[in-house]
Amino acid sequence: MNEIFIVVANAIAGVGVIGLVAGHGIIASGNKHRGFKFSGAGSLLVAISAMMLGSWPVFFLNAIWLWLSIQGVRNLNKPDQSHAPDSMAALGNIITPIAFALGVIALAMEAYSVAAWACTCIYLIGYYLLSSNTWSNNRYLLWTLLAYFLLVMHLIETNQFMVLFNESLGAVFSLSGLIRNK
User: Fold this and answer.
1) For the chain, is the Cβ count within 10 Å smaller at the N or the C terminus?
2) What is the C-alpha to C-alpha distance for residues 153 and 162, in angstroms, rounded to an integer?
3) Please, are residues 54 and 90 in contact by the beta-carbon 8 Å criterion?
4) Are 143 and 96 contacting, i.e. CB atoms less than 8 angstroms apart?
């Protein structure tokens, strides 16, 4: 892959990262409605960049993130009707720690793409349950902070430098939100 292509893809991701970082920071501060809007716009651009670089875990994460952001905005307008079904919430609560454990094993085996898929699973479950008003902000922030560590090596391996920057800032926002909401 030539360097100019990598730079262009990362520039597109950079603009998307601004939206995602802003969205995560806004959600961490408690304004989910505005946070979902910023996250949706940012995820669209990062998905385009990830597709260009062949980073399929990041592409699928951001394509679904866009859809969940739209659902989140819609669900905030009808909070009494928007909770995830109990079976989905229970399934999410079971799959999330299992995905994390499998991601840690994948990291130990240097299977960075597999660890990234585990992170993608955690991010999507968490964002779905947050956008459906099922998980609290703190629960979402804790799992996104933990899942971040599963993704780092894949991002380095696939030259996703702007996404790494985004994810690192997101981890800082998650930690600060958890400390502030303690």
Assistant:
1) C
2) 14
3) no
4) yes
What is the rounded distance in angstroms from the CA atom of residue 59 to the CA atom of residue 66?
A: 11
φ, ψ dihedrals at 108, nearest 5°: -60, -30
Which pTM was predicted? Answer: 0.80
Rounded Cα–Cα distance for residues 69 and 74 (Å): 9
CA distance 130 to 139: 9
How many CB atoms within 10 Å of residue 137? Answer: 18
Residue 61: name the closest of 130, 141, 176, 151 by CA: 151
What does the DSSP assignment read for 76-89?
HTSGGG-PPPHHHH
Which one-letter DSSP state was computed for residue 80?
A: G
DSSP character for 128? H
The radius of gyration of the chain from alpha carbons, rounded to an integer in Å, stands at 15
Provide the residue-wise pLDDT of the chain in tens; the chain has 182 residues: 788 999 999 899 999 989 988 998 898 888 888 999 999 999 999 999 999 999 888 898 899 989 989 988 887 776 555 566 777 778 888 999 999 999 999 999 999 999 999 998 999 899 888 888 888 889 999 999 999 999 999 999 988 888 898 889 889 989 998 998 87
Query: DSSP secondary-structure letter at 85?
Result: P
